[in-house]
Amino acid sequence: MLIVDDEEEIRRGLEVHDWEALGIRLSGCCDNGLTACQRLYGEPVDILLTDIRMPFMDGFELTNWIMQRFPFTKIVLLSGYNDFQYARQGIRYGVSDYLLKPVSGADIDEAFGKIIKELDAKRLIEIRTAALERKAKLSAHFLRQRFMQRLLFQRLTPDEIEEGCSEGEMVLESGRYAVWMLRIDRKAELPGYYTDREWDLILFALGNILTEIWDGTRQGYHWIDTNTGRCWLLCANGELLEESDSMPAKAADKAALVAENVKRFQGLIMSTVSYGLGPVVRDPSQIYLSCLAVADAMNVNAGKGIALVEPMTVPGREEGCDRTADNGSRLQIKEAAAIGLIEEAKRFIDANFERSISLQDVAEHIHCNPNYLSSLFRKTTGKNYIHYLTDRRMEQAIKLLRTTAYKIYEISESVGYSTPAYFVDLFRKRYGQTPNEFRSPLGNAGEGEH
Fold first, then answer.
1. In what order do the strands lie in the sheet with 220-224?
2. How many distinct structural domains can be found in the chain?
3. Which of 42, 89, 174, 450 is the most exposed place for a label (fewest CB within 10 A)?
4. 339 domain residue, yes or no
5. Domain ends where: 262, 292, 309?
């Protein structure tokens, strides 16, 4: 169990309760909801005891955050007298119980005794299963962050972009893209201003905000430079970028809204926030040009709290940007050996497509250079690695849709996609209908897409 309360006296009083007699191990205490979120990512708990009124993130915001990510966690609210009716409403949102301050030992024993009985063997199995699913999602998240860094700062080939999007579960099909940047001004002025602990918490807060209001609302994707705190937002929503004469007003409004959400944590970052909007480009391979343009503009304008909008036309930055061809030694193998190599790669994919796997994983398994494998795979099979992997996943998805009553999110996870929305987009693109629409004629489409 984790205790979250901003009053030190309350925390100390709760810590000394005999939790072991109830069969509960106390994981620790946090003084606000944001710190608790950061801790829970590394060490999930079965039970959370939290106050309602706290800085940075209150008890209800914390509850909502946990319900989305750790749905099997039991939550108990601590309430002052003035918040008592407010706390009772929390039960409707999944809170297990509430306790009125000052809390008596008898009240604690009664409330938590009921919770312990609910955490039976079946629920523990579900928690372990959820932990494995989170591990898979973290893997996809890592691959996305690695690809985003390359996409922002390098000119990638179409194959590299396709492979990166598949591994990171990203969709780049709007035909209009722009890179926006947020800057914590104090970090830019005084790189050593924050302690390591403060900086870790700031980075966590930034990532949490952008995941919720940017990636989570399908505006695009983000990447944060952990050294500088600069937040790079890739806008992949064509509707925000649909005007042609100047940066669309809708895009500027959206960028301002993102900056305002970051300023919610003013007490934590203790700084003004500046942001800039890069020009629109038409192809994913040009995204780095928008990134370079907004970075240049922000570097030139070092003022505090500024908002910059770059022209729609991308400046000529192509000189010297062509990628150097790989002139390294190329393996010369016989056609039969090449076919055998690809067959082994296909066997590895067939056995592992239900989890997050990358071209690098396959290459390491067959002891081969990833670039060489990519070229050989296309030459031997007539399709690239990502197309083959997607084919296998979709074949299994069709089978599950026809033969099981699994929910869409369960099928998504079963075929290797940690993000149901991404799975639905891929399915629709391939078959011209959503998974539920495909299943509907079979009379088995009772649940929602996600």
1. 220-224, 231-235, 178-184, 273-277, 307-309
2. 3
3. 42
4. yes
5. 309
Q: Does residue 215 fall inside a structural domain? A: yes
Q: What is the CATH number of the domain that holds 357?
A: 1.10.10.60
pTM of the predicted model, to two decimals? Answer: 0.56
For residue 42, being part of any structural domain is answered with: yes
SS3 for 307?
Answer: strand
Calculate the alpha carbon distances from 341 to 309, 337, 347, 381 in Å: 51, 6, 10, 12
| Residue ranges making up the domain that contains 190 | 140-309
Q: Which of 119, 150, 165 is the last residue of a domain?
A: 119
pLDDT digit string (tens) for the chain, length 450 residues: 999 998 888 888 888 888 888 888 888 899 888 888 888 887 888 899 988 888 888 888 888 888 888 877 888 888 775 666 666 666 666 787 888 777 888 888 888 888 888 776 566 666 666 666 666 556 778 888 889 999 998 888 888 898 888 888 898 988 889 999 999 988 888 888 999 889 999 999 899 899 988 998 889 999 999 988 999 999 998 888 876 444 567 888 888 889 888 888 878 888 888 888 888 898 999 998 888 888 888 877 767 777 777 555 454 444 333 333 333 322 333 454 566 678 778 888 888 888 878 888 888 877 777 887 888 888 888 888 888 899 999 999 999 998 888 889 889 888 988 888 889 989 998 899 899 888 876 545 444 454
Q: Residue 55: inside a domain, yes or no? A: yes
